[in-house]
Amino acid sequence: MDRVKRMLLENKAWSTSKTDTDPGYFENMAGSQAPTFLWIGCSDSRVPESEITNTDPGDIFVHRNIANLVVHTDINLLSVIEYAINYLNVPHIIICGHYNCGGVKAALGNQSLGLIDNWVRNIKDTYFENQVEIDKITSEADRVNRLVELNVLAQTRRLSFTSIIQNAWKKNKLPHIHGWVYDLNNGRLKEIEYIAPGSTIDSTHRYDF
Question: Which class in CATH covers the domain with range 35-195?
Fold first, then answer.
């Protein structure tokens, strides 16, 4: 409970510091939101999107799930994407994974984790598609990290194939889709994919980076 109380006290201190600097800060913030980015990231607590990109509240519309997956049956995710594109007119979508991802580790392992097994099955499919390459990697950590990269690539493509994105591209040539990976060891983001509005992706193409 002490940590919970501390969080509430820290909130008061933060709120006061904001209004001391800009008396209209929260009034302006409460008016409306016009984010530039939709962030589809991992639920991992070590990847706070606003902090690692040094952006302000209101800049990023956020959806997070285990291993930053785009699943075509996930109504929650699809609703977020539709709202971001059709109502907030967000011009950029970022799918951000991170190295040493627990969800990716689970997909590479054989241990049963309950309901999580059903979710990470989507990552296992990406592994099977790239099994020859991944199995050649001797280091377990490097295998995980390579699958992290390939998983981000798979999700950017899946996102581009959704009817929401396809329809948006037909109407106004937006959004841009970006695939990033965050390195927990140095705090740096690595861009590994960019899909321009209206692109046609050959699903057999291999990306080298």
Answer: alpha beta
